[in-house]
Amino acid sequence: xxxxxxxxGIVALAELGDKTQILVLLLAARFRQPVAIIAGLVLAxxxxxxxxxxxxxWIADLVDPVILAWGVGCGFIAMGVWxxxxxxxxxxxxxxxxxxxxxxxxxxxxxxxIGDKTQIxxxxxxxxxxxxxxxxxxxxxxxxxxxxxAVFFGHAFAKVIPMKAIRIVAAIAFSGLGVWAIIEGxxxxxxx
Length: 192
Description:
The chain is mostly helical. The chain has one domain (2-191). The protein has eight helices and no strands. Helix 4 runs antiparallel to helix 6 (117-129). It starts with a helix and ends with a helix.
C-alpha cells in the first residue's frame, strides 16, 4: 500500500504546473472533449509509466542495493531541485492540427513524457519499491488526480493554484523521499 500511495502522491505533486498539465489546459481549450482527452491521457500515461517502471526495475536488478539506494536518493533530491523550476509550453503552437482529441492527446502526452520528471520518478519508484504494477497504478492515478481538474476547469484552475507553493511542497516531498532512500542505503551499507 505504501508503494501505491507514495507513487500517487509524488506524481500528483510533481505534475502540478508541469508541462504536461499545461498541455492538458491547451487541449481542453482547443477540443472541449473531456472524455477523449482523459482517455488519451490515461493510455499514454500507462504505456509511458510502464516502460519507465520496467527500466527502473531492470536497473535495480543490475546495481548493488546500497549503491542503488544512494543513486535513487540522489535522483529524488535532484528531482526536488527540478520541481522548483517552473516549466513553460509554447502556447502559440498549434496543438493537434488535423487529429482528433484522443489521438492528439495520446501522441502529445507520449512525446511530452519522454524524459520528464514524472517519468524519471516512476523509474526511481519502481527501483525503490520492486512493485512495478503497484507503482504504475499509483503514478497513473497521480497523473489523473493532477490533470482531471485541468480538463474540466481549464484556465480557471491555473489561476487558483499557487504554483510557487505547489513547487515548494513537491520539492520537499521529492527531497524527503531522497533522504529516506539515502538513509536506508547507509543502514544497509553498515549491516553488510
